[in-house]
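hi! just following up on the protien thing from before. the input was this:
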Amino acid sequence: MNSFQAAPKPKPGNEWGYFEEQRFNITIERQTLVEFFGVQVLPEVPRSVEDICTTENRAAAADDATYNTLRLMDLAGRRVIGTYMAGDCFIAHLLQKMGFAEGRRLVLMGHEWPFNMAGMKTFALVDVCIVDEKGLPILLVKTEKREYRLPEAYLVMPLVAAAVAAFDKINYSRCRSLLPKFDEITFPAIAVHSGTQPYFYKICISRQFRDVVGSVQMGQATSMTVYCHHPQIEQCYPSLRMTCVDVRREVLRLMEAFRRLIMSGEKVNDRTQKQRRCSPDAFAYVCKETVEHLLLSAGSGEGHHHHHGDEKSTTLGFEFPVYLVFCPPFSPLRFSITTPSPLAAIRSPTPRANPRHPLSLSVFFIRKQKLPPPTDLPARVDRD
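and the predicted 3d structure came back as:
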């Protein structure tokens, strides 16, 4: 029997590799600059990191902040025993310095999220991540900590596992807020090779893929494609990495383009959510206007809104059917009986087609939403 057809076993996300790539039929597809970032020309380096692009080494640093950044970069690029965590410190420091963690976001190191695999609970660990004020993931980062270079799958598959756990985390949070779950979420991710060489990824997790990962049944077919962009500068400077000023500048320009891509994806999603939002006062306002319209139009004088037949002054005014009087109180009663929750009735509009964006985030992009049944609500609320 083929080893990939054996009964699935739960495995921590940081141990995912070639076996999971084959089992879940995961494909890594490279994209060009235009396909991945949606731009033909990279943006310039932001001012916050301009100083490290004009300084050759830390000995020539003009201030302590530049010196500390360049020293972390040197330690991350060496990859000697005792300095493996320097790569995590460097990428976390760089993300903070470039504005990836603006507002109330946090840059965390060594963070883990639980998820289910093969019917059992396990966890996914990322070296660096960015979370929002609710603790929901925005960016996932995995760094290489070996003296020799690993195959790409051994860095990407742990990111896929982390994206699965992040998918659960986001939908669980929405379920607690009585919001519909996302059927598909695309997470931005970075894999750092050789200490300072970033590769950029877009990992799209669907509910169908998530169910297959968590299922104990064998033979369920699934597939997914991870889109990536590899910097082309490594072909010109394969061994210099970010120690060369020219390479450093190009890497930072790519990271700035990735930051803008994430921010633009979030703005598209926020705008979509506002369009779908329905005010809870709308229903009461319609009932109030109906009753007011009925009472004013039934009075004497010119009536209300000058309805046809209301020009003559009579004691009856404009005659309404009697059954319309019972419609306003009957409508709330009907919704309270047929709908599990008033908020669920308000927040379940028919989804409209959304324009695709180069980076679809749910925090990013919603392809389709379904309202979870009341039984899906968590029995208890865990403290973050």
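The two ends are 44 Å apart (CA to CA).
Residues 281-346 form one domain.
cheers
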